[in-house]
């Protein structure tokens, strides 16, 4: 730490810390957005301590909202909710602290690899301020990426220090955060091979065996001991399209890291619309492979530079497991998510630092540009209207983008623009003009549909707020038809009938809703009022 504080080569890290403070501190208290709403803000399971049994059985998936087993991430949400309430400031502050911990472990790993301190400091700085990491830091429900990064970095550092027990504990912590931590196994092997040669790999064989036992035990329990919903979500994507998705995801993967402009919360996977595009993507992938091979060959010929081969392999390991070919195994409509870049960035930043090692002015300019882009991106995440509005501009044909913008406007009580966005989303669905749905609905096995209960519910609620009750009713009735278990539409339809003095119909809607949700306080109160033929309360719609 003394060297970091006083060395002239520390300027990139110190600059990055200042830029992080300027960008994130004003935005930490911004309202929750996107997945935070369902997984944290509206998740009542987090309001009381989740018992150990809740983490070790299938109940976990209903309590957490997750589709795969990530108990350590859920434990942090539960602990923070109990300690600080559903405070965005508390959740994002933890994310920022984990980011700083990951950066410090990363710097330690780089220096311990024998890399020059100036290059290590620049790599850590680039990693800290890259604007693609804003999604991971501003959306608190993605802290699993941060936990895995800290765990894998800790694993490699402990393994290098000859502490396999500590490395194994870190590895297990990563697996309990997110299943991609299984890549810790090839990472420690690649580290030994690139830094110390095959003889070191042979000496570390007992450690590899212990890590493998941990991974197998985790895998056995998560696959055979639990019935994760994510294991059931299949989509029959044609082989040619899967290959094109993989190539296009590689392009997005490289482009966003090198030129982080036009960032978005969704990178949709759609079939290529031309042969020339497919050929161009193929040529790009071949170029990346050739370039990586040439760099690897050059590094391998110079023993003093050989450790860089480890960082060259690092990002592509993580790209491979999250590439656009994934729709073959699970139902996803994405080529890329920026949170998936958080872990690969640990390798890419080191490679960038190597390229900039003897160019201090260029290094300063690159760091400054990334800091400016990071600052702008945190402003987007601090206002979800800007966040979803940018997605609408990029995908004007997307019903999901318009529905998201409608929800964002509703959260800010901008009801006119919200209704306009919802209506556009409905139009795109009813006229079947959304190409994403047109492609995925037929192959999704019923998991995606042209009809959307959430959109109908939002439209009904929007017209209810606007006082257009006759327009609200058909949307609310349709929402019940599409999703009979959701209490929201029952509440509003029953309340409308009671407001009109039609108490028998109000009681019928309340009873129907209570048959699906017997503990719903709103419906219980509405049923009581309808039975007494008087309305004693007004619904909260914020």
Q: How do the helices and strands line up, and which of them pair or pack?
A:
Blueprint: H1 2-6, H2 11-24, H3 35-41, H4 52-56, H5 59-64, H6 71-84, H7 88-112, H8 117-129, H9 134-138, H10 143-160, H11 164-177, H12 184-196, H13 198-203, H14 205-225, H15 239-258, E1 267-268, H16 275-301, H17 308-321, E2 334-336, H18 345-355, H19 360-381, H20 384-394, H21 399-411, H22 415-430, H23 435-440, H24 453-465, H25 469-482, H26 487-499, H27 503-516, H28 521-532
Overview of the structural elements:
By secondary structure, this protein is mostly helical. The protein has two domains: 2-382, no CATH class; 451-542, Serine Threonine Protein Phosphatase 5, Tetratricopeptide repeat (Alpha Horseshoe). The protein is 69% helix and 1% strand. It contains 28 helices and two strands. The chain has helices at 2-6, 11-24, 35-41, 52-56, 59-64, 71-84, 88-112, 117-129, 134-138, 143-160, 164-177, 184-196, 198-203, 205-225, 239-258, 275-301, 308-321, 345-355, 360-381, 384-394, 399-411, 415-430, 435-440, 453-465, 469-482, 487-499, 503-516, 521-532; strands at 267-268, 334-336. A two-stranded antiparallel ribbon has the order 1-2. Helix 7 (88-112) runs parallel beside helix 10.
Strand order of the largest sheet: 1-2
| Strand residue percentage | under 5%
List how many beta strands DSSP finds: 2
Domain module count: 2
Oligomer: single chain
């Amino acid at each position: 730490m003394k060297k970091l504080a006083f060395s002239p080569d520390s300027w990139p890290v110190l600059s990055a810390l200042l830029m992080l403070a300027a960008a994130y501190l004003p935005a930490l208290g911004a309202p929750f957005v996107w997945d935070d709403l369902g997984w944290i803000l509206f998740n009542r399971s987090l309001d009381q301590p989740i018992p150990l049994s809740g983490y070790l059985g299938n109940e976990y998936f209903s309590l957490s909202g997750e589709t795969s087993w990530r108990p350590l991430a859920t434990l942090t949400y539960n602990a923070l909710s109990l300690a600080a309430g559903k405070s965005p400031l508390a959740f994002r502050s933890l994310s920022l602290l984990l980011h700083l911990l990951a950066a410090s472990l990363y710097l330690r790993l780089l220096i311990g690899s024998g890399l020059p301190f100036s290059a290590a400091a620049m790599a850590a700085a680039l990693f800290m301020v890259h604007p693609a990491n804003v999604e991971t830091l501003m959306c608190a429900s993605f802290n699993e990426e941060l936990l895995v990064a800290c765990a894998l970095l800790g694993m490699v550092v402990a393994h290098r220090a000859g502490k396999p027990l500590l490395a194994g504990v870190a590895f297990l912590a990563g697996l309990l955060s997110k299943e991609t931590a299984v890549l810790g196994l090839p990472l420690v092997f690649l580290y030994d091979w690139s830094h110390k040669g095959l003889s070191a790999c042979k000496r570390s064989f007992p450690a590899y065996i212990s890590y493998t036992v941990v991974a197998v035990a985790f895998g056995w329990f998560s696959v055979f001991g639990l019935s994760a919903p994510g294991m059931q979500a299949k989509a029959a994507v044609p082989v040619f399209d899967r290959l094109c998705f993989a190539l296009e995801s590689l392009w997005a993967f490289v482009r966003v890291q090198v030129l982080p402009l036009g960032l978005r919360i969704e990178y949709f996977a759609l079939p290529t619309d031309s042969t020339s595009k497919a050929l161009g993507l193929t040529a790009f992938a071949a170029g990346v492979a050739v370039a990586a091979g040439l760099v690897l060959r050059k590094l391998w010929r110079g023993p003093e530079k050989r450790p860089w081969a480890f960082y060259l392999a690092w990002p592509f390991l993580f790209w491979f497991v999250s590439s656009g070919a994934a729709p073959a195994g699970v139902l996803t409509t994405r080529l890329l998510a920026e949170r998936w870049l958080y872990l690969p960035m640990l390798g890419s930043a080191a490679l960038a630092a190597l390229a900039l090692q003897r160019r201090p002015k260029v290094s300063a300019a690159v760091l400054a540009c990334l800091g400016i882009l990071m600052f702008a991106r945190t402003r987007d995440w601090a206002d979800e209207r800007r966040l979803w509005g940018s997605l609408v501009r990029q995908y004007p044909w997307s019903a999901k983008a318009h529905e998201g913008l409608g929800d964002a406007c509703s959260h800010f009580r901008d009801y006119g623009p919200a209704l306009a966005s919802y209506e556009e989303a409905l139009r795109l669905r009813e006229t079947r003009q959304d190409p994403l749905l047109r492609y995925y609905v037929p192959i999704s096995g019923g998991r995606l549909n042209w009809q959307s209960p959430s959109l109908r519910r939002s439209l009904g609620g929007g017209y209810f707020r606007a006082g257009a009750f006759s327009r609200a009713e058909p949307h609310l009735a349709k929402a019940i038809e599409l999703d009979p278990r959701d209490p929201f539409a029952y509440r509003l339809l029953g309340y409308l009938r009671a407001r009109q003095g039609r108490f028998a119909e109000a009681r019928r809607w309340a009873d129907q809703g209570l048959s699906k949700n017997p503990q719903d306080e709103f419906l219980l109160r509405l049923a009581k009022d309808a039975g007494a033929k008087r309305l004693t309360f007004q619904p909260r719609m914020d």
